Predict the 3D structure of the following.
Amino acid sequence: MSNETLIIQAGLSERPRKSRLPARLDLLQSMTGLFLALFMWGHMFFVASILLGKDAMWTITKFFEGYFFFGKAYPGLVSIVVAVVAVVFVLHAMLAVRKFPINYRQFSVYRAHAKSMRHGDTTMWMWQVYTGFLMFFLASAHLYQMMVWPQAIGPYGSGGRMWVDGLWPFYLTLLLLVEFHGGIGLYRLAVKWCWPNAGREFLKKLKWGITAFFLILGLATLGAYIKIGIENQDKYLNGEHYTPAWVQQAEESAR
């Protein structure tokens, strides 16, 4: 038996190959993060429709419930969309947590390393870890609520949850976490994948500009829902749903 045959049979001819799995997981994490960030931008504009009035918010809500397509609202459609987002959210969290410090010793080493370096991007990543950890609990609760009770979405229902149910501190905290986590995440995606072709200082200014815009929009929206909740407490407690005047007139005419 030749030496070459012995080497092949012993498996010595097989060279260890570097696994592509970490790179693929990084790509999947980036894709799910981008999807969630873009979804949150759209979601913010949708809920901010209350700033244009109750009719505008009702119209957006019923659009997603299929009212203008089927002639009847199906809140279950919203539940399906929320369920898909929830799956992507959990997948993104599972992919991200593999990079978190797994014990206090690792956390202490990283924190000391970050303090000694005083590197902005490293500090932002640490804040992304903090906000991501908290979001896993708060955002999960929000998604569950929207998935199970989609019929409660509306001017009176959303306003009542903020004020009557006392959930405005919850949503204020969630707003801050989402905007800071998402803004940092998009900045890191742009740097990591070299898109667009711009320097880090420009991207940081753009990131903080976008974060400030959505924070102002979110705070104004939260204030509008609190105001509606205060003014319509009895209607919320009585289970009344807001219906625009033109819809009421159309329904009366149909009768």
Observations:
- The chain has twelve helices and no strands.
- The chain has a mean pLDDT of 88.
- Residues 21-246 form a domain with the 3 helical TM bundles of succinate and fumarate reductases fold (CATH 1.20.1300.10).
- The first helix runs from residue 3 to 9.
